[in-house]
Design a protein that fits this description.
CATH superfamily of the largest domain: YjbQ-like
Helix content: 25-40%
Order of helices and strands: HHEEHEEHHEEEE
Strand content: 25-35%
Strand order of the largest sheet: 1-8-3-5-6
CATH architecture of the largest domain: Sandwich
Structural class: alpha+beta
Largest sheet: 5 strands, antiparallel
Number of domains: 2
Shape: elongated
Number of strands: 8
CATH topology of the largest domain: Jelly Rolls
Number of helices: 5
Radius of gyration: 34 Å
Mean pLDDT: 83
Length: 218
């Protein structure tokens, strides 16, 4: 009996259409054909799975890594304090920070974040030995953002000729620093120190928010 060519072409088109747009349906049609093989191989598959270590590189949620120090408790701390009032200049304040935050010694590992709540000063990490570096830094920033002696450099001068230059320097230096904590001490480099940079000509009182996060001593 001859096969209708149009019917054959239609069936071929439908099969290709199903393959292309409904691959999951094709898998469901084939699943009954593979069911005997799955049943036959289920025991061996289970035994192979049992051989997989329970604490491999991707352990299940219930697996406990015995190498972790379970006695090391993590914690957060946040304090606010005021820096000694200073006029224009760059000042090394590492000792002040350590004095204001005796809790640092309670942390085995962690991170100290310092944030100054003002827009005309800054915090930085830099040279801790030669004071000339701090003086040179203040002078260099003055050259980048000079005082508006003639009144034609800036629009904003609500608090004097040093007002807008202080904002520019604050944007360049930044209002925060982060320092790692290791074994109860700040893990700064040999020549690194925490700087407070004051950009206003007169003395100002500056508030700092300190946040510590880490694992405490066991």
């Amino acid at each position: 009996m001859p096969v209708d060519t149009n019917l054959r072409n239609t069936l071929i088109f439908l099969i290709i259409f199903i393959f292309a747009f409904f691959p999951n349906a094709f898998q469901l049609l084939l699943k009954p054909l593979f069911l005997p093989f799955e049943l036959f191989g289920s025991d061996s598959t289970a035994s192979k799975r049992a051989l997989i270590p329970t604490c491999g590189c991707c352990p299940p949620a219930e697996c406990t890594n015995t190498n972790l120090n379970v006695n090391m408790a993590s914690g957060w701390l946040q304090k606010q304090f005021t820096l000694p009032s200073k006029s224009r200049g760059s000042y090394l304040i590492t000792d002040t920070i350590v004095k204001e935050l005796p809790e640092i010694k309670n942390y085995k590992i962690g991170l100290l974040h310092l944030f100054v709540q003002h827009t005309s000063c800054g915090l930085s990490l830099n040279e801790n030995w030669d004071s000339d570096v701090r003086e040179d830094m203040s002078d260099a920033l003055d050259r980048l953002a000079p005082y508006d002696k003639k009144g034609d450099l800036y629009r904003h001068d609500a608090e004097g000729e040093d007002d807008m230059p202080a904002h520019i320097k604050s944007a360049l230096v930044g209002a925060s620093v982060s320092v790692p904590i290791k074994d109860g001490k700040l893990a700064t480099g040999t020549w690194q120190g925490i700087w407070y940079l004051e950009f206003r000509a007169a003395k100002h009182s500056r508030r700092v928010v300190a946040t510590i996060q880490g694992a405490k001593m066991s």
